[in-house]
Amino acid sequence: MGNYVKLLLAGLFMFAATVVQAVPVSVQTNGFTQEWYTNSLASGGYSPYYNGDKIIDLTPGRYYFGIVHPGAGGQGHLIEVLADGTINDLANDGALSLSPGVISLNIIDITIDPAGYEGRWQLGHSGWKKPKATVRVVKGQHYGLSLGWPMGTGFTINAAGQLTLDDPIAASVTGTILILNTVPVHFDPVNYLGQYAIHYGTRWISGKNTLMLVPNQNYYFGIAGMDAIYFALDAQGNVNLDFSKGPSGPNPTQYWLDKIADKSVIALASIGSRVDTIRFKNTQASIDLGSYVGLVAVHRILVGNRGHISGKQSLVLVPNLRNGIYLNAWGHFFFRVDALGNLTVENGVSASVNYSTQTGLFSDMVLNNHKVQVDPGAYTGNWDMWEGSGLVVTQTTGPKTITMVDGVDYPIRTSAAPWGTATTSVSKTWFQVTPACQITPSGIIPVGTEIFQVSCVNPNIAPVAHAGGAQTVEQTSPAGALVTLNGSGSSDADGDSLTYAWTGPFGTADGIAPTVQFPAGTNNANLTVNDGTVDSSGNSVIITVQDTTAPVVTAPAAIKVEATGAQTTVAIGTATATDAVGVVSISSDALTSFALGTTTVNWTAADAVGNSGTATQSVTVSDTTAPVLTVPANVSI
Q1: 487 near 503, Cβ under 8 Å?
Q2: Would you tell me which CATH number, out of the four given (3.90.1210.10, 2.60.40.10, 3.30.70.100, 3.90.25.10), belongs to the domain 21-107?
Q3: What's the rounded mean pLDDT across residues 273-293?
Q4: What does the pLDDT average to over 464-488?
Q5: Is the pTM higher than 0.70?
Q6: Which residue, among 126, 100, 98, 155, has the nearest Cα to 32 in the 3D structure?
């Protein structure tokens, strides 16, 4: 037993001798506020990221002492920690001052001057800034200077505090001051009223703007917050749509960039000597809310009441980019409009796209909706359907019938404060109505401790259009005739109010009885009515415009002339005629000369369809001149 104990103690002493004691190391950052870390080369392990002064335990061995996260342009400095606390600088790049048990950062203050750059900047992970600022950095270190995403440049500062730029096109250096170089770039949305921004670079802006940007950079350019395009500024400050002409050469996003460029979202132009202008392509779309009464906004489109639209709204949009229609903070759906103006709805259920006879495109979008009843059951307190900017139902109690857009999330809130005010005692549950008028996930909806029941009101019955009886009217002008249509025979079984859409040779018209122009001949007018949810089938009426009225002829005044012979040539003048549609010809049966006595001349005027009118003129040839007698000469016998 004694020998066993001796052997055990000997083993313990040998194990203790092999255990390496960690060395406490004090890291002194000297006012440097960004992160640092220590990664062991022996174990391959990664340490946490630290900020500020700290005492850490390091096992003797080699480490990368990292300053600033590598993703932010930082780097590691090779050091060696010995068992006696000695720390050796194997990098010897001037970043660190080392003494037994102490690592001290060699710092220097530098100034970043954006010099008019419109965006924000960040050195390493120092936090986003906009104006000129002084930043404390560590010598012997490389730093990334982010100008947004994916824009940026960098520099190295040596042990003597001298700055060397990664890209002398993007910036310049004077002593310890780094100054960004900028060029003006002009943005022209034309008639687009939405907002746009350089990602992490500029605030959201609208209308025409000139932004000072850094050349030799790739920019990510967001429009309306839903979609974006990329563009590059080359070394000369020219705008182009090809990342291969930017500083990084071929880029993983080049494929997407080419597709965006193919869609002709923007056009490039020049105001000065550079290609310095980005001009938005424009296209038009129509959004019809129908019977929906909640607040509706097209994301970052500055129209209507604080961005909210109502009724039927025509919008100028940028083609081929994603647009969001928000019905509350989270309930929304997306759509796109192509360069011609054709609309597509991404989820295919929240809205229908109709053909417009006015534009000849699928450019009219109508929200699909259903009426549902929300019943709070035994709950007698306040509830509403409000989230963010989307007011659907204001504070209320008891059951309520509402209209919801298909396929969009809506909230029910209990213990709700008045609309637009904050409260900490709100319970909330989301639900949807499907195109088949079913409630999902279920018509029984728990909201906190309360149970609401939501059910569809009787499904909507499509309205019936009636364009009235056939009409035959008299043509009143070369263009045809004004005709008052009559859609009063249209009906809706649900008793919903109707809107009326007429199409025909006149183009489009609305209203129950519009007065429109029809050309001569047989015409069709088509009527479609909408009950706020769906369109009816079309119904047509025949409108015949005909000309049955003869021209009115006015003959020249009666003429009396002295005979000049057996036949007398007379200038009888020309008749005139008037006709609502137009006179085609005027003729008479007059001869070239007239005999003694009174002759009646018949004048005839005809219009294009053969209606004719007549009038008469009398021509009287008289002989009131005595004969001149010539006798023979006198005869003398």
Answers
A1: no
A2: 2.60.40.10
A3: 84
A4: 94
A5: no
A6: 126
